[in-house]
Design goal:
TIM Barrel; about 350 residues; 15 helices; two-stranded antiparallel sheet; globular; alpha/beta
């Protein structure tokens, strides 16, 4: 069995809201960070951007992630955020065209000098350590991660997370763990830990990724969507520490049901106008992979008032978990969802 390393919930826009991050921590994750937030909005004190970098006292360390193609905005944002953050994470991995067309995110990998100048100035401006998250390069012909990682290590970044794909790959193909291994070897003499990211979906792939990369930590993204218990399962299955699963010995459906109920409690606890913004998407994600989810999902989607979605979802989970149905497509849950779909959302 590989030695225990910290597990990171990957930053994911539209997924890793503060309640979901607290949920992931309770479910076994060791580190979380906010979804990427535009330095252009933060540096101009835009309220909606600042709402994206909200945290909670139980989220420690607090690691807001920022992106942007304009160096001065990134520097000013690092300065502002460092008054409340424990670490600032700079995003050089996002492949979304609306980000890369402003030469931000993974597009920054095309110009190492520019990226390094930005990192250097953000480190100078920040009162707290700075970490970086990057891809391999912009395409298979322009792999810049080796040069960039080494120069970031020389600058003294706290850690380097590498998603083993290029910008042009987006999410296609397999993550290249061999290249992450090379980055680990490059950063090692500088004492900078490298976190491996890409295609870790359970204990087996976690162990294999560690074996190939020798990384100091693992980051999990899509595998944690609708399944935050993945972190605890990896720890349990790899015999790491004595993780005490809050879901007891529940099976996969029971774990998702636990996670959904706990997520709702956390959203309630956090409150405020933004806490529940991803609720509907999460509700639907929690059904994925379970029998009958395909039939149930469109009915959940049709519910306009996201606060009502828990009723049919709980009914479906309960029917499945107590074995009165062998599917999530519980007719009573579907009928209930149908009855709720015309309710308009009113504040
Ligand atoms: C829905 C979604 C949103 C994402 N948003 C971000 C983001 O805000 N910041 C970031 O650095 N990466 C973002 N990513 C990339 C992930 O953090 C991660 O690098 C990628 O999904 C590969 O890891 P995985 O194979 O475990 O999913 C996002 C990925 C997904 C699927």
């Amino acid at each position: 069995m590989p030695e225990q390393v910290p597990l990171f919930l990957a930053p994911m826009s539209g997924v890793t809201d503060v309640a979901y991050r607290l949920l992931a921590l309770e479910a076994g994750a060791d580190f979380t960070s906010t979804e990427f937030t535009a330095a252009s909005g933060l540096s101009r004190q835009d309220a909606r951007s600042w709402a994206k970098v909200e945290t909670h006292p139980r989220e420690a360390p607090f690691i807001p992630q920022i992106f942007g193609g304009i160096e001065d905005e990134m520097v000013e944002t690092s300065r502002l955020l460092s008054k409340s953050a424990d670490v600032i994470d700079l995003n050089f991995g996002c492949p979304a065209p609306k980000v890369t067309k402003t030469c931000a995110g993974a597009a920054m990998m095309a110009d190492p000098d520019n990226l390094i100048s930005m990192v250097e100035r953000c480190i100078q401006a920040s009162e707290v350590p700075v970490s970086v998250k990057m891809r391999l390069g912009t395409s298979q012909n322009t792999i810049t991660v080796f040069e960039i990682a080494e120069r970031c290590a020389q600058l003294g970044v706290l850690r380097i997370c590498v998603h083993g794909r290029t910008l042009s790959q987006k999410y296609r193909g397999d993550a290249n763990w061999d290249m992450i291994r090379q980055v680990v070897d490059i950063a090692e003499p500088y004492g900078v830990p490298v976190i491996a990211n890409g295609d870790i979906i359970g204990a087996k792939s976690a162990a294999r990724c560690l074996e190939v990369t020798g990384a100091s930590g693992l980051m999990i993204g899509r595998g944690a969507i609708g399944d935050p218990c993945i972190f605890g399962r990896i720890k349990t299955e790899l015999g790491w520490g004595d993780f005490d699963a809050p879901w007891g010995d529940a099976n996969e459906a029971g774990q998702k049901h636990w996670a959904w109920n706990r997520y709702v409690e956390l959203v309630d606890e956090i409150g405020g106008p933004y806490a529940a913004r991803n609720m509907k998407q999460h509700a639907i994600s929690f059904t994925k992979g379970l029998p009958g989810s395909r039939e149930l999902r469109p009915h959940l989607h049709a519910i306009k008032d996201f606060r009502l979605i828990g009723e049919p979802l709980n009914m479906a989970f309960e029917g499945y978990a107590n074995r009165s149905h062998n599917t999530l497509a519980v007719p009573e849950a579907i009928a209930m969802a149908e009855g709720l779909k015309h309710h308009e959302f009113k504040r």
